[in-house]
Amino acid sequence: MKKSDVKIDDILSAKSEEELTKPFLGKVEKIYENSALLTIIDYDEVDDTAVSDLNQKIVVNFKNLKEAPKRKIKEIQAKATSDIKVEKIAKVEDEQKVDDKKAEK
């Protein structure tokens, strides 16, 4: 891939010749002269320790970057926008229980 083809926030497929054993997907954070800094967003389980050691960041040469499959990008975006519901627990009940225990003593 050429430097002119790489843009900030692009999601690209990449491979590392040293740190990771399998190809991975990364989001472009910064562009250098011959490489790009990627945040690793999807990777093989065998590289879990290495990704953790790298703090989910890696610098990859442009020759080791290529466009990510659109299907894979859609999967990642679906995970990122999944429905997560957070409910606030009423403090009144908890405070009442604490007050009741104090009253018993």
List the helices and strands and how they pair.
Elements: E1 11-14, E2 24-31, E3 35-42, H1 48-53, E4 57-61, E5 65-67, H2 70-80, H3 91-104
Antiparallel strand pairs: 1-2, 1-5, 2-3, 3-4
Organism: Lactobacillus apis
Protein name: DUF2187 domain-containing protein
Concise account of the structure shown:
The protein is an alpha+beta fold and 105 residues long. The protein contains three helices and five strands, in the order E-E-E-H-E-E-H-H.
Key attributes of the depicted protein:
alpha+beta, SH3 type barrels, five-stranded antiparallel beta sheet, 3 helices, 5 strands
What report would you give on this structure?
- The chain is elongated.
- The mean pLDDT is 83.
- It has a domain of 69 residues: SH3 type barrels, CATH 2.30.30.
- Strand 2 and strand 3 form a beta hairpin.
- It has 105 residues and is an alpha+beta fold.
- The protein has a five-stranded antiparallel beta sheet with strand order 4-3-2-1-5, with no helix packed on it.
- The longest helix has 14 residues.
- This is DUF2187 domain-containing protein.
- It comes from Lactobacillus apis.
